[in-house]
């Protein structure tokens, strides 16, 4: 039995992907660009074992066995990677015929799937990356992103660390629709993120359904598609120059435009709640009262109510204080903070940064405790990791899950 | 002393006005179209007295005296109507020189101004209409709308009953930017409206500031401006044919597109709350479960959280039952119902119409009592009215307010 275990990170787009021109191949209607967040905080972990003893492909997701044949998107990833392995085996008879073996796949997220934290992107990225390691595929990461894209569109962006662009491509077969690294995580290590998990998230429209409905019914979507190329260029420039001002404004504008075309969809799609919008208002007030007039934080929202706030490390402490004052937590569940930014400072004291003398304290009310259920403090970081220690595997020596739900 | 008292109605747009191409003359960036609602429920009332004894122009708004010289928009309306009167007096020496007299103006809304119910439109319409009556101006209503427009843009649409279009016009001096009646109230008397006043309305961005910010910063606004002419044609056709299906879909789409360009503004503008969006979801579920697949209700939202639901009379009873179930009122404040649609039926019983067998009862939760603070049931109705009975005047025989706040 051959077994490999890997983790893959979550990515949060700053130029949003919304709309497919081909739903089977998952080819998007526009380029997108994301930041890869640290696997120390959020990751999907996948173990895959191949053995000639196995009688069927089996899949366990978060401790529950699922019917692999019913998951067409995962199936696409199996088919594509096996085909590449089969070619290698044809060319080299010494290779073990792994492409003919059945596989056992076990995958887990280290965060609740229901939290709406881009789990499908990290999950499919972990699957495809682990398959590539298992089969020892001799292809570049960008070539691999073509396969991940067919599992879950935004998964292609989780195969790189740092700053990643998904080029929509032009070809009908999707051969040029792949992800490339714009800059590695080492380029801008000061960039950090604060994920505000908004509780009581109403179950919204799925991204898959929602984006097709936008393409079909939103008159404003055509204009968004004309906007994106210019925004991609400007965002790449901002990243290359570590220009937080441009990065922040573009990030907020693009998040808002994405939610605007959702609202222009018929029937309309609404992912943000009053809590989401209050966080937006808070960040604008924080920026507006910045002593030198410079933006210090930028929010972005995926297809859900959770805010992700990007900021430079030097400002993150005061941003956490500010958010924690207006959205008090419930004890024991609030922080995951490997950077110890908060230290021993009691939350709620001096929540307005001293330099922000024009800050309007009444911009939003203090929300009921738990309106934001968790704050996750993280940073830009690397791409998928191989875990060599067998103790890290989710599968035991028999190729079965160590833990079931 | 000569004195006149008039009332003017509220109008609620189904194709929204948002954006000025000239902020001084109040010339819009697109045509708009509204429905005039009954003055029996909502109106602004204005009394104006002219006397050579008066020493200065004076103004009382909702019982409080205000400095008329500081209200530039009202001042525009005074200047324009006085100029027309002066011309008449020059041509006919027998006319009383009212244009040289000082005026006392007293105006009240029969609803809280803070409720966000288009009070500036009805208020300025009442002012201009009363001035025209006082001065016995010999001009058409459409010519008068040009003056009302300079007081408050959407006020021009409150000078007609029924269905009213504000033509944006092309001229730089605004001479062709005026309102015309698309159809009188008698054309579609079955059309009714339910105003859902959403409480705890956060004080949002003013319309005046908000629309200019959209013009300056929203990339999607250009596409909206390209959309509106086609929507105006389709809406006029729907009204002429009393085609509720087209009327309803266009109304909801245009409301959503207006709020979409607000969200695409930088910084973003947000007028709707979770309660607003829940009402939208409820109306879509109600329409989706309609037994013959036909739309039975349409929502629209101005620059605030309150919903206005348009429906044909035959469906209004079940719509009120439905809304009242999910948004329970607090006793004594809920209904203003001159049409007695509810009768003696207890609210909350059989809230899902029997024919809607596929209605998903869990589409939204039941909201806390008072989330919708008032339901106002009204209908399409006539334009401004002259009140001939002196008892109806807000001014006494000395030209001073009968009541002060």
TrEMBL record, chains A, B:
SUPFAM superfamilies: GHMP Kinase, C-terminal domain, Ribosomal protein S5 domain 2-like. Residues 193-387 form the Mvd1 C-terminal domain. It comes from the Eukaryota. One of its GO terms (molecular function) is ATP binding. It is an enzyme of class 4 (lyase). Residues 8-179 form the Diphosphomevalonate decarboxylase-like N-terminal domain. It catalyses: (R)-5-diphosphomevalonate + ATP = isopentenyl diphosphate + ADP + phosphate + CO2. Its EC number is 4.1.1.33. InterPro entries: GHMP_kinase_C_sf, Mev_decarb, Mev_diP_decarb, MVD-like_N, Mvd1_C, Ribosomal_Su5_D2-typ_SF, Ribsml_uS5_D2-typ_fold_subgr. Keywords: ATP-binding, Lipid biosynthesis, Lipid metabolism, Lyase, Nucleotide-binding, Steroid biosynthesis, Steroid metabolism, Sterol biosynthesis, Sterol metabolism. GO terms for biological process: isopentenyl diphosphate biosynthetic process, mevalonate pathway; sterol biosynthetic process. Transmembrane segments: none annotated. PANTHER family: DIPHOSPHOMEVALONATE DECARBOXYLASE. Belongs to the diphosphomevalonate decarboxylase family. This is Diphosphomevalonate decarboxylase. It comes from Lichtheimia ornata. The lineage of its organism: Eukaryota, Fungi, Fungi incertae sedis, Mucoromycota, Mucoromycotina.
